[in-house]
Amino acid sequence: MRRTGSSGPVAVLVGLALLASAPAWAAGLEFYQTVNREEVGSEDTFLLTVVTVDAPADAKVKLPASDDFEVVNSSRSTQRSVSWSGGGPANIQDVTKYVLVMRANRAGKLTIPPSEMTTGGKTHRTDSVRIDVKPGRLGPPPAQAGRQRLPDPFAQMPSRLPDPFADEPEDEPTIPRGDSDLFLRSSLDRDEIFVGEQVTLSLYIYSRVDLSSVDAVTMPKLEGFWTEEVESPTQLSGEQKVVDGVPYRAYLLRRRALFPVKSGTLNISPAEADITTGFLFAGHRVHRVSNGLKVKVAPLPPGAPPGMSNANVGQWRLSVDVSQTRVELGQPVTVKVILEGTGNVKNVTPPKLTGPAALKIYDPTTTDKVTPQRNRVQGRRVVEYLVMPQRTGNFTLPGLEFPFFDARTRKYEVASTDPINVTVESAAGGATLPPTTSAHVADSANEQKNVLTSGGLRPVRYQARFVAPAEPLWKRGFFVPLVLAPLGLLAGAALLGGVRGRLATRSEADKGRQQAKASRKRLAEAEKLRAGADAGAFYTEVEKALHGFLGARLGGPVIGLTREAIGERMTAAGVAQERRARVLYVLEACDLGRYGGGGDAAARQKVMDAAVAAMEGWA
Amino acid sequence: MSEYYSPEEAQDVFLKANEAYAREDYAVAQAGYEKLLSHGHGGADVLYNLGTTHLARGDLGRAVLSLEQARKQGGRAPDLEANLAVARARQVDKVVGATAEEEFLPRVTAATEGTVVAWTFLGTWVGALLLLLVWRWLTPGRRTGVGVVAALLFAVAVPSGLLLAAHAWVEETVHEAVVLTPTLVARELPQPGARSIFEVHAGLKVRLLEETGRFVRIRLPNGLEGWAEREGVAEI
Predict the structure, then answer these.
(1) Do B133 and A456 touch (CB under 8 A)?
(2) What is the ipTM of this complex?
(3) Which CATH architecture has domain B7-90?
(4) pLDDT per residue over A132-141, tens digit each?
(5) Which residues in chain A are contacts of B81 at CB distance < 8 A?
(6) Which residue range(s) make up the domain with A361?
(7) DSSP-based three-state secondary structure for B116
C-alpha cells in the first residue's frame, strides 16, 4: 500500500490504526509526512516528521524545501520490527523517520511541499501539509504545554509560604533566525515585581558549536534599577539544554540582581558579546546581541508605615549588640545595629540610634556583608555607633523599629528591638557627679539642658608657689643633730650630777683622812710630852688625838660622848672588838692619868702604844 | 633659689607658659614649665601644669610622670586627681588584681605627709627631752605637771618616729616609675633577645626593683615582673 499524504495528526493516527489492524499491509511500502501542530506562531518551531516503511535499500528521500520555512535542525532514525502471526513466516518491517525542526519565515496559511522518495527509477511523493502561521509566538504545542502545566495542588492554600528552595523558572529562549548555532540570550526570572523587589537578570550563550573564549561582554543599560552582581563566572562552563527540540550548550556569562527603584514598565536593553569559536587558527570571532527585556514594576501597595523607604523590601531581622551595659564615666560603649535578611542589603537604611543627651552618640560606621544564595541577594548591614556617656546615672537607649514590605506574603512587617539600659558609674579616682535615680535622669536627660560634664581636663593653675627641689626633712643636715641634741643634753646633765656626787663623796673621805692625819700628828706631839713633868697635858693631848681620830673615822665628832656611847658607835661602824677595847682602854687611861696623878713613864708609854695601835690599820 | 631667675622673672615665665597653654600652643607651654623646673623654680603647681600640658598633647607617659611628681611634692588636690583619672582612662593597660598585694608600708606612707610627720616627730621629741631635763632640776613637789606634759609628748613622738622611719624606709627602698615609651617590652632576662613576657604602655605606674646595664626589673601592681629597657621608664 502506498500512502501519499496526510493532513495532520488525525490522519497519522488513522494510518497507524489501519496499520495495526491490517497486518497484511505490513509488507507494503509506506511514505508519508506529518507535522505536530496545524497552527503555529512565526516565532515558534514545529516538527515535520517524514516516515518511510519498508523502503528499498536504494531509496533516496528528498526532504521538502521551501522559502517559507527554515530548517532549524534535522535528525534521522531507523527502526526494524519482527512479528509472527498464526505460525506463518516472520513479518519484518523497517521504519525510517526524518524529523525536521522547522520555523516559518512569514505569517499566513503556508504549505509545506511534499517529500520525495526515488527508488527503482520510480518517484514517490507524500502529500503536502498546510499549516496556519500566526505572527509572533503562540507558545508550545498543546501536548507539550499540557505536560508542563501540571496542576498545583497547593495553589489554593490560603497562606502560601515562600519556598526557599524553589528552583528558578526554566528559561525558554527563542532560537533567533540566522544565528541559530550561536546566540546570546538575556532572561529574567520574573516579569512582574514590586518596587524594591529583586528580579534576576541572566545572560547566557546558547551554542551548538565549540567556543574558544568570550572576549568582551557589554551588559545592558539598567536605568531605573539598583544592581548587584550575583554571579560572574571567570571560565566558560556549559550545560546541556534543549530548545524547541534542538540540543544546545548553554554558558552563563553574567547574573545580576536588579532592584527597581521606580514603578512602571522598565526596559532592559540588549547585551552584547564578542565570542571566539573554534580552536586555534580555525577559530573566528563573532559578535552577538541578545534580546531586550521588559519588566512590569508595581508600586508598593497602600498601607505602608509613614516614612518607609521603597528600598525596605524583602525579609529582614533587626538586632542590637551592645559592648557593655555597665560602664565607667569616660569609657565608650559600642552599639551595633544589625539588619540582616534577604533584599537589597546595600540600599536599606537601618533605623538611627537615638538616646538621651547624657549619652553622646557619634556618627556611625557602616559595614556590609553580601552573601547571595540561590541567586537571591542577602546578607547583613551593620551600623556601629560609639556612645560616650557624659555623666553618671542609668540611661535607656530606646528600642528600634524597621518597617519593610515582604513581597512574598505581600504584607508590611516591622522588625524591632528591645530598649537597652546603660548604667554609667563613676570612674576610679575621678571626680564625678553622684549617680541619680534612673527615672529622674531618664526624664531630665531628654530635655535640652546646659550639660556640665565632669569629664575632660582640668585647667592649669594660674598661680604657682615655686619650690626648689629639696630633700626630705629627715635627710637634711640639721635633722639628726637636732634629734640627738636633747639626748646629749640629758646625758650631759646626768654625767654632771654623777661627777658632782663623786666629788662630794671624795671630800668626806679626805676630811676623814685629814682628821686622822691631824690626830696622828697630835699623838706625835703627845709623844714629846710623855717624858715631861705635866702628865695631865700628855693624857689630854692623847685623848684629843684619839677623839679627833674617832671623829674622822666614825663620821662625826665624839667629844662629849660617854665611853659607852663611843663603844656603841664603833660597834655600829663595824669596828673590831680588839680595836674597840684598845680605844676604850686609852680613853679610860687618859681619864685616870689626868685626874689620878699621871702614873710613871712606863704607864704613859703603854697608853701611847695602845693609842698608836688603836689608830694603826684603821683605814 | 635660682641661678638665673628672680622670683618675678620666674612668675613671668610661668604666666607666659599659661598663656601659651590657653591658646593651645602646647609646645611653648611645655618649654616654659620645663625651663622653670630646670632652673630650680619647680614645685607641685609647675609640675601639675606640665603634666596637664603633656596630657593635652597626648603624651600620656610624661603626663602621668609629672602629675605623680606633683602629687608627691604637693599632696592630693582635686584638679590633680581629676587629670590623673583622665590619664588613667586613656591608658591602654589594665592591670588585673592590682590592689590585692599592695604592701602595707607604702600604703601607710602614701596616706601620710612625710614632711608633717618629720616635723611632728622632731618637735615632740625635742620638747619631751627638754622637759625631762627641766624635770630633773625641779624639786619633787613641782615635777608633776612637767612630767605629765613630757609623757604626752613622748606618746606622740614614739609613733611619729616609727612613721618617720617607715617614710625613710620607703624612700630608700621603694622606687616607683612611669612608663614613658608608647610600648615597652618586659623580658625574662636583662638581654635584648630574651623572651618577652608582657608589654606595657605609656602611662602605666610600675615599681623599679633593681638595675643592671641598660635594663631595670619592673614590677606591676599585681606582682608581674620583667626586665625592661631603662630608657623606657622614668622614676617619679
Answers:
(1) no
(2) 0.80
(3) Alpha Horseshoe (1.25)
(4) 998 887 776 6
(5) 429-431
(6) 314-445
(7) helix
